C-alpha cells in the first residue's frame, strides 16, 4: 500500500469507524491534493517564512543605498542691523548675508559606511540562502510526516479489518461449540482497541496535513499527497562527503561576522570630527556694496567621542566571531552524526523489512492454525499484534532514514533529491 494513495474503509469496518471517516471527509470537503515535493517547494516561494527572509534582503539593500548618501548642504539667509535704535532704525544700514554650508566627511567615514552596508546585504543574502535550505528541510519533514501519518492510518484500518475477520472466526468456532465464549470476548476486546487506535491515527493524520498546509501558506488544506517522499528518499543516491564549511548555516554565520566587523570599522571612523565649510555673499546697504565671505568650522570632540557605539559594535563583532565558531563546530558534528544515523537507519530498514516478512508469515500460519482448531485465539491475537508492531517498525525506520538524509541535504544546501536550492 502506498501512503500517498487514498483508501476508503471496507464494508467490514464497523459503523463507528465509518462515521469517523465520514466526519473527516466532511471536514476536508474543500481539501486538495498536495503536489509532488519539488513542485510544492517551487509553488511555496511566497510562503510566510520565505517572504520574511526576502523582506530582510530588501531592508539591507535599502540601508546600503542610504549609506552612500552624502550629508545635505544647508543654505542660510541672515539680516543684521535693522529696526533698532538710531542709527539702525530702518533698513538703511542693513547687512544681509546669503550663505551656503556644506559638511565635509573626514577620516573615510563614507567609505567605511558603504562597506558596512554592502556587507549587510551580503549577510542578508547568506541568511536567506540558509533560510531557504531550512525551509526545504522542514517542508520535506512535514511532507514525510503527512505521508507517515497517512500510512499509519491505513495500517490502523488494516488492523480493524483483520480484527473483524478474527472476531468472525472466533464467533464461528464459539457457535460450533469448538471454542469458549471467552475467546470471542477476547477477540472483541482486541477489535475495540484497534478501533480506538484508528481514531487516534485519523486525528494524527488530520493534524499532519494541517501542519503541512500551514507551512506552505496554503489557504486550502491538503488531504492527500501526490508523491511518496519516503520512496523518493530511498531512490536518491546517497549523499557524498559533506563539507561542513560549505553549509549554508556556516556561510551565513561567516557573512554575519564580516558584516559586524565592517560596522565596527564604520563606528570607529565616526569618531573623527567633520569639517563644515561655508561660503556666502553679504549685501551692505549703507555702503551700497557687496562682499564675499567664507568660513570653516570644526567640532571639538570633548564630550562625544562615539565610545559607547564603538564598544557596542566591538561586542557585536566578538559575538559574531563566537557564533561563527559555534556554527563551525555544530556543522561538523551534524555532518558526522547525520551520516552515521543515515547508515544506521538504512540497516534498520533492512532488518525491519525482514522482520515484517517473518511476522506476515507468522500471522498467516496462526490464522490457519486457529481456524483449524489447532491453536488458541491468544496465539492468533499475539501474532496479529506482532505484525502490527513490525509494520510500524518498518515505517519508523524508513522515516528515520529519510530524516537523516534530509539533514545531510540541508548541510549541502540542496533538496532531498539532490537539486540545489534556488
TrEMBL record:
UniProt keyword annotations, A-Z = Signal
Q: Which domain of life is it from?
A: Bacteria
Provide the leader sequence positions. 1-31
Q: Does the keyword Aminoacyl-tRNA synthetase apply?
A: no
Q: Does the keyword NAD apply?
A: no
Check the record and name the Pfam families matching this protein. OEP
Please give the family membership noted in the entry.
Answer: Belongs to the outer membrane factor (OMF) (TC 1.B.17) family.
PANTHER family in the record: BLR4935 PROTEIN, OUTER MEMBRANE CATION EFFLUX PROTEIN
Protein name, per record? Outer membrane protein, cobalt-zinc-cadmium efflux system
